[in-house]
Amino acid sequence: MTTEKILHPDTASLKRAAAVIRSGGLVAFPTETVYGLGGNALDAEAAVKIYRAKGRPSDNPLIIHLADARDAEKYCVTNEMFYRLADAFCPGPLTVILPKKDCIPYTVTGGLDTVAVRIPSHPIANALIRLAGVPIAAPSANLSGKPSPTRFSHIEHDLDGRVDVLIDGGECDFGVESTIVKPTDDGKGLHLLRPGGITIEMLLTVTDTVIPDKCLTEKLPEGTRPLAPGMMYRHYAPDAPLVLLEGSDEAFLSFVSEKLKAGEDCGVLCYDEDLAVLGEHRTISLGPKDERNTQAHRLFECLRAFPKVERIYSRMPSREGIGLAVFNRLIKAAGYCVIKL
Length: 341
Ligand code: TXA
Ligand code: MG
What we know:
By secondary structure, the protein is an alpha/beta fold. The protein has twelve helices and 16 strands.
């Protein structure tokens, strides 16, 4: 398949991309979180094409992207909690799980009776949805299992020749995928299915109860399913096995210094402050230790940047604020492999 690359999106080129979506094709586009791979959410076949292009299991449901929270009631059964969340955080990096209406095909929801809804704030994403005139179903635009794409070069690497259009929107702001929540059965609280740019502290401004799904930080026992099916898969993985190191700054530095000195074929994911001790060889920094937004912004680009090595050792990030999202992605990329120092 030839893939059209839109390097300088303007109204004319976005109209072309929107027509591709309407006619059943696939367009990779920027959002404020990560790049998405979009198709018409009302077209059962488009969802099948998305799964095929990503190499993704079709029981892992897609998020539908809307231009405006007021459109949600056309596609799902909205409730008071949804509007409270929408008022506070939409457009933005938040996805809400709601009962679906009949117009949303089961291929989009992986057979579930609920659908994930998000209203992205990125101007290109918003314009594309408006011009398409249909909701856009979009997972992250990476090949299944790979780190999510946060730059145009990432979608070019993963999807050139596999989809109709790629749109360049520069670097994504947040760098980690949206926060996913599902209202509790009584409608008063929220289950947190995936941490992201809308932090627990922020969610607590609209409800008193936020219940993090166990799988966010711990490996679930065999046979148990997380609330978000996608959280089950090993994810975000770089080309080498990743190991998280838990311990003090000193313990981390001495552990990895030993490995580097011994000539182990490894890489190190660390903070800027560590580079003074470890040097630039075989090391990649997520950013300053206390700058959690920078760490989230750079996470996937760092995971993609490692050359083929036998093992990557990583700092254990803080779980504060957006740090919980970074921690969650790293521990999943590591397949929950942690060494306590
Ligand atoms: O920031 C984002 O959310 C990005 C951009 C492109 O919007 N999208 C994204 O999509 O991360 P994806 O497909 O990579 O992740 C969607 C997650 C999966 O873990 C999936 O299982 C969960 O959302 N999900 C989707 N529909 C669901 C549903 N009805 N119930 C529970 N979880 C659902
Ligand atoms: Mg994904």
